[in-house]
Design goal:
Blueprint lengths: L2 H14 L16 E2 H11 L4 H11 L12 E2 L11 H4 L16 H14 L5 H23 L8 E2 L2 H4 L8 H5 L25 H16 L4 H7 L4 E2 L1 H21 L2 H19 L2 E2 L4 E2 L1 E3 L5 E2 L17 H15 L28 H13 L3 H18 L4 E2 L6 E2 L5 H11 L3
Helix pairs in contact: 1-16, 2-3, 2-5, 2-16, 3-5, 5-6, 5-11, 6-11, 11-12, 14-15, 15-16
């Protein structure tokens, strides 16, 4: 299929998943608005419809809580095709939402959309960006207050779903300490839409829902959740995305922020960058998260170890080591970067975040490689991603060993990634 036809196909996927100013990841499997999905989707829309890109972000912040948190799901309209729904979360926001968050790609997307708006001569760009900038700033302050109360320079997740990498091997040890008992009846809907072999196991879901029960019993109060959390991980992927988004907000603040905004963002970024830098492990050639309950490094190899590239300028030795390590992960793969490498005992090439390739993760890794001067490797990652999409379609994720499309189809953020990465050929 030609590039033009594929771009038209990507536009059609986004149109199909449009629900009136916000986009669902894919029909039925994910029938609501997801936080980081929508941020990537907004960047995809910005390649051909900047007004619609703004609207994606505006609809997302309709769900922002008064304390600044942007939830991971906004339940704009009812649907019975997804579990857990709003009745399980039991939040009391003015719009029904989940009670946890997701990687804060929002700030990255906002800068991207604003620059596209300026390039297209949009007359209301400054007004629309300014309102969203304030929402993003409020969110970033929440992250530092609620999820780094001890000032480590690392923000923590209290649920694997917050990471976006739900069943990653990175969480295996920490999640194993979470009981499988629940006060909520589990009625999984995902395996009715997708082969169970491609999804988290039932035991994972029992632990996931146990955590929801715990935090719901805390009335979703951040301080009570922090004190009660049986799962608490200072996550380098989350911290890196927040640090990068903070840098993007700093750029916007030059024109749209106050002196106080600029000073606060600069301080925030220094704290995050310093925290991330301390997580480099030269013997592993990547960054590692920290289990705050056990105090141990999380050394399981996953894509999270490369995401700090988007936020840090590495020294020469670090650049050489991390690019060689990514090259090792790509060796023998039809498409990379796998979310877990083939040499790991935990590698499962078809099971969600335990091996499959995700287009948006490759988007982040490629951006980080390019920021660190590894242009050739960045292009290799991008081109293999684009080729996988052209061969298999706009699937949720891909088997790295075969290139087979997996999970949901007609997936919004894969279409958005194609539109963004396809322009870099």
């Amino acid at each position: 299929m030609t590039t033009l036809r594929m771009e038209e196909g990507a536009h059609a996927v986004l149109a199909r998943n449009d629900r009136g100013g916000y986009t669902v990841p894919t029909d039925r499997l994910y029938p609501f608005q997801w936080n980081w999905d929508s941020a990537f989707v907004a960047m995809g829309f910005a390649t051909f419809n900047v007004d619609r890109a703004y609207r994606e972000l505006e609809r997302l912040v309709e769900g922002q809580w008064d304390d600044g948190m942007i939830p991971h799901i906004v339940f704009h309209v009812p649907s019975d095709t997804y579990f857990p729904g709003p009745d399980v979360w039991g939040t009391r926001h003015r719009i029904l939402t989940s009670g946890i968050t997701q990687p804060p790609v929002f700030g990255m997307a906002l800068r991207h959309v604003h620059e596209a708006a300026l390039a297209n001569g949009m007359t209301d760009a400054e007004v629309r960006t300014r309102a969203l900038f304030q929402a993003a700033l409020h969110s970033h302050r929440w992250w530092l207050e609620a999820r780094d109360p001890d000032g480590l320079g690392l923000v923590s997740i209290l649920h694997p779903w917050e990471s976006g990498s739900d069943n990653s091997p990175a969480w295996d040890e920490a999640l194993a300490r979470v009981p499988t008992t629940t006060t909520t009846t589990i009625r999984r809907k995902d395996t009715g839409h997708v082969d169970a072999a491609m999804r988290p196991r039932d035991e994972d879901y029992q632990r996931f829902i146990h955590l929801v029960d715990v935090y719901r019993d805390c009335d979703w109060d951040p301080k009570r959740q922090w004190a009660k959390a049986p799962f608490k991980v200072a996550d380098v992927q989350m911290t890196a995305i927040l640090a990068r988004a903070t840098a993007d907000l700093m750029h916007l603040a030059e024109a749209l922020g106050t002196d106080e905004d600029r000073a606060g963002l600069a301080q925030m970024r220094r704290r995050l960058v310093d925290g991330l830098a301390r997580r480099w492990r030269p013997d592993l050639s990547r960054f590692v998260s920290l289990d705050l309950i056990s105090g141990a490094d999380i050394e399981a190899p996953t894509q999270a170890g490369f995401i700090p590239l988007v936020a840090l300028a590495l020294d020469g030795a670090q650049q050489s080591a991390i690019t060689a390590e990514i090259g090792r992960w790509l060796d023998g793969m039809v498409v990379g970067v796998p979310s877990t490498p083939a040499f790991s005992p935990a590698f499962e090439p078809k099971r969600y975040w335990r091996g499959p390739v995700w287009a948006v993760i490759n988007w982040l890794i490629a951006d980080g490689l390019r920021l660190n001067g590894a242009e050739d490797l960045a292009r290799r990652v991008e081109q293999s991603t684009v080729q996988a999409i052209e061969n298999a379609g706009f699937c949720e994720y891909f088997d790295p060993t075969t290139g087979e499309g997996l999970g949901g189809d007609t997936f919004s953020w894969t279409a958005a990634a194609y539109l963004a990465l396809g322009r870099r050929r």
